[in-house]
Amino acid sequence: MSGKAEFIEIFKDHIHREGADALLDYLENKSDFFTCPASTKFHGAYAGGLCDHSLNVYHCLVDYLARERVTELYGLEVEAESVAIAALLHDLCKVGCYKAGTRNVKNDATGVWEKVPTFYFDDPMPYGHGEKSVYIISGFMKLTRQEAMAIRWHMGFSGQEDARLVGQALEQYPLAFALSVADMEATYFLEGKDQG
After folding, report:
1. Which of 19, 91, 138, 187 is most buried, most CB within 10 Å of its CB?
2. Tens of pLDDT along 70-100?
Protein backbone atom coordinates (compact mmCIF):
# COMPACT_ATOMS: atom_id res chain seq x y z
CA MET A 1 0.00 0.00 0.00
CA SER A 2 1.33 3.43 -0.88
CA GLY A 3 1.84 6.09 1.77
CA LYS A 4 -1.00 8.14 0.30
CA ALA A 5 -3.39 5.17 0.37
CA GLU A 6 -2.43 4.35 3.98
CA PHE A 7 -2.85 7.97 5.06
CA ILE A 8 -6.30 8.19 3.46
CA GLU A 9 -7.35 4.88 4.99
CA ILE A 10 -6.32 5.93 8.51
CA PHE A 11 -7.89 9.36 8.03
CA LYS A 12 -11.23 7.90 6.87
CA ASP A 13 -11.23 5.16 9.53
CA HIS A 14 -10.68 7.55 12.44
CA ILE A 15 -11.56 11.16 11.59
CA HIS A 16 -15.32 11.66 11.33
CA ARG A 17 -16.13 15.14 12.60
CA GLU A 18 -17.80 17.81 10.54
CA GLY A 19 -15.42 19.25 7.96
CA ALA A 20 -13.15 16.20 7.76
CA ASP A 21 -14.25 15.35 4.21
CA ALA A 22 -13.52 18.89 3.03
CA LEU A 23 -10.09 18.79 4.69
CA LEU A 24 -9.23 15.48 3.04
CA ASP A 25 -10.41 16.86 -0.32
CA TYR A 26 -8.11 19.85 0.21
CA LEU A 27 -5.16 17.57 0.99
CA GLU A 28 -5.83 15.31 -2.00
CA ASN A 29 -6.91 17.76 -4.67
CA LYS A 30 -5.98 21.31 -3.73
CA SER A 31 -2.57 21.02 -2.08
CA ASP A 32 0.79 19.34 -2.53
CA PHE A 33 0.52 17.43 0.77
CA PHE A 34 1.09 14.01 -0.81
CA THR A 35 3.96 15.11 -3.05
CA CYS A 36 5.92 17.63 -0.99
CA PRO A 37 8.93 16.80 1.21
CA ALA A 38 9.01 17.06 4.99
CA SER A 39 12.17 19.19 4.92
CA THR A 40 14.78 20.56 2.53
CA LYS A 41 17.72 18.41 3.56
CA PHE A 42 17.02 16.50 6.75
CA HIS A 43 14.19 14.03 7.39
CA GLY A 44 11.85 13.23 4.52
CA ALA A 45 13.70 15.47 2.05
CA TYR A 46 12.10 13.84 -0.99
CA ALA A 47 8.82 14.06 -2.88
CA GLY A 48 6.17 12.45 -0.69
CA GLY A 49 8.29 12.83 2.45
CA LEU A 50 5.64 14.84 4.32
CA CYS A 51 3.04 12.10 3.95
CA ASP A 52 5.56 9.44 5.01
CA HIS A 53 6.61 11.53 8.02
CA SER A 54 3.00 12.05 9.08
CA LEU A 55 2.40 8.29 8.93
CA ASN A 56 5.57 7.60 10.91
CA VAL A 57 4.48 10.06 13.59
CA TYR A 58 1.06 8.42 13.69
CA HIS A 59 2.52 4.94 14.25
CA CYS A 60 5.00 6.23 16.84
CA LEU A 61 2.20 8.04 18.70
CA VAL A 62 -0.06 4.97 18.68
CA ASP A 63 2.82 2.88 20.07
CA TYR A 64 3.70 5.47 22.73
CA LEU A 65 0.12 5.73 23.93
CA ALA A 66 -0.16 1.93 24.16
CA ARG A 67 2.80 1.63 26.59
CA GLU A 68 1.82 0.13 29.93
CA ARG A 69 3.51 2.96 31.81
CA VAL A 70 1.60 5.58 29.82
CA THR A 71 -1.79 3.91 30.28
CA GLU A 72 -1.43 2.66 33.86
CA LEU A 73 0.92 5.07 35.64
CA TYR A 74 0.11 8.26 33.75
CA GLY A 75 -3.50 7.31 33.04
CA LEU A 76 -3.27 8.84 29.57
CA GLU A 77 -6.13 7.79 27.32
CA VAL A 78 -6.66 9.54 24.00
CA GLU A 79 -9.48 8.86 21.57
CA ALA A 80 -8.43 7.32 18.26
CA GLU A 81 -9.81 10.32 16.38
CA SER A 82 -7.64 12.75 18.37
CA VAL A 83 -4.57 10.56 17.82
CA ALA A 84 -5.16 10.52 14.06
CA ILE A 85 -5.83 14.26 13.89
CA ALA A 86 -2.78 15.24 15.94
CA ALA A 87 -0.33 12.92 14.21
CA LEU A 88 -1.52 13.00 10.61
CA LEU A 89 -2.10 16.76 10.50
CA HIS A 90 0.59 18.23 12.78
CA ASP A 91 2.75 19.47 9.88
CA LEU A 92 0.13 20.88 7.52
CA CYS A 93 2.07 24.12 7.89
CA LYS A 94 4.52 22.71 5.32
CA VAL A 95 1.97 22.45 2.50
CA GLY A 96 2.83 24.74 -0.39
CA CYS A 97 6.20 25.75 1.07
CA TYR A 98 8.69 23.61 -0.87
CA LYS A 99 9.87 24.45 -4.35
CA ALA A 100 11.90 22.01 -6.46
CA GLY A 101 15.24 23.26 -7.78
CA THR A 102 18.86 22.32 -8.15
CA ARG A 103 22.09 23.10 -6.36
CA ASN A 104 25.73 22.55 -7.22
CA VAL A 105 27.58 19.78 -5.42
CA LYS A 106 31.17 18.74 -5.95
CA ASN A 107 31.51 15.08 -6.92
CA ASP A 108 34.08 13.65 -4.49
CA ALA A 109 35.23 10.99 -6.98
CA THR A 110 35.76 13.25 -10.00
CA GLY A 111 36.17 16.68 -8.41
CA VAL A 112 33.63 18.05 -10.89
CA TRP A 113 30.73 20.24 -9.83
CA GLU A 114 27.34 18.74 -10.67
CA LYS A 115 23.76 19.99 -10.45
CA VAL A 116 21.66 17.88 -8.11
CA PRO A 117 17.95 18.16 -7.37
CA THR A 118 16.96 19.83 -4.12
CA PHE A 119 14.07 21.61 -2.45
CA TYR A 120 13.92 25.22 -1.30
CA PHE A 121 11.67 26.45 1.49
CA ASP A 122 9.55 29.47 0.59
CA ASP A 123 6.58 30.01 2.90
CA PRO A 124 3.78 32.01 1.24
CA MET A 125 2.00 32.34 4.61
CA PRO A 126 4.62 32.87 7.37
CA TYR A 127 2.33 32.21 10.32
CA GLY A 128 4.66 30.04 12.38
CA HIS A 129 4.92 26.29 12.58
CA GLY A 130 2.50 24.50 14.89
CA GLU A 131 0.19 27.50 15.08
CA LYS A 132 -0.05 27.59 11.28
CA SER A 133 -1.06 23.92 11.22
CA VAL A 134 -3.78 24.64 13.79
CA TYR A 135 -4.93 27.62 11.70
CA ILE A 136 -5.16 25.56 8.49
CA ILE A 137 -7.03 22.68 10.14
CA SER A 138 -9.41 25.07 11.90
CA GLY A 139 -10.49 26.42 8.51
CA PHE A 140 -12.07 23.00 7.87
CA MET A 141 -12.98 21.46 11.21
CA LYS A 142 -13.10 22.25 14.90
CA LEU A 143 -10.24 20.97 17.08
CA THR A 144 -10.48 20.12 20.75
CA ARG A 145 -8.25 22.17 23.02
CA GLN A 146 -6.04 19.09 23.61
CA GLU A 147 -5.62 18.53 19.85
CA ALA A 148 -4.91 22.19 19.15
CA MET A 149 -2.30 22.37 21.91
CA ALA A 150 -0.67 19.12 20.81
CA ILE A 151 -0.32 20.34 17.23
CA ARG A 152 0.75 23.84 18.30
CA TRP A 153 3.50 22.55 20.62
CA HIS A 154 4.56 19.38 18.78
CA MET A 155 8.11 20.72 18.33
CA GLY A 156 8.56 20.60 22.11
CA PHE A 157 11.87 22.02 23.26
CA SER A 158 13.48 21.60 19.82
CA GLY A 159 11.81 24.77 18.55
CA GLN A 160 12.77 28.35 19.31
CA GLU A 161 9.97 29.00 21.78
CA ASP A 162 10.21 30.33 25.32
CA ALA A 163 11.12 27.19 27.32
CA ARG A 164 8.71 28.16 30.12
CA LEU A 165 5.78 28.18 27.71
CA VAL A 166 6.82 24.88 26.18
CA GLY A 167 7.09 23.28 29.61
CA GLN A 168 3.70 24.61 30.69
CA ALA A 169 2.03 23.34 27.50
CA LEU A 170 3.60 19.87 27.73
CA GLU A 171 2.62 19.58 31.40
CA GLN A 172 -0.95 20.82 30.97
CA TYR A 173 -1.69 18.91 27.75
CA PRO A 174 -0.29 15.37 27.85
CA LEU A 175 -1.12 14.74 24.19
CA ALA A 176 1.25 17.60 23.33
CA PHE A 177 4.08 15.81 25.14
CA ALA A 178 3.20 12.47 23.53
CA LEU A 179 3.04 14.01 20.03
CA SER A 180 6.37 15.76 20.58
CA VAL A 181 7.97 12.44 21.55
CA ALA A 182 6.43 10.69 18.54
CA ASP A 183 7.57 13.46 16.19
CA MET A 184 11.15 13.28 17.47
CA GLU A 185 11.18 9.48 17.32
CA ALA A 186 10.00 9.52 13.71
CA THR A 187 12.35 12.34 12.73
CA TYR A 188 15.55 11.12 14.34
CA PHE A 189 15.18 7.32 14.52
CA LEU A 190 13.05 6.42 11.50
CA GLU A 191 13.90 9.22 9.09
CA GLY A 192 17.30 10.52 10.13
CA LYS A 193 20.07 11.11 7.63
CA ASP A 194 21.34 7.53 8.05
CA GLN A 195 17.89 6.04 7.31
CA GLY A 196 17.25 7.37 3.84
Report:
1. 91
2. 999 999 999 999 999 999 999 999 999 999 9
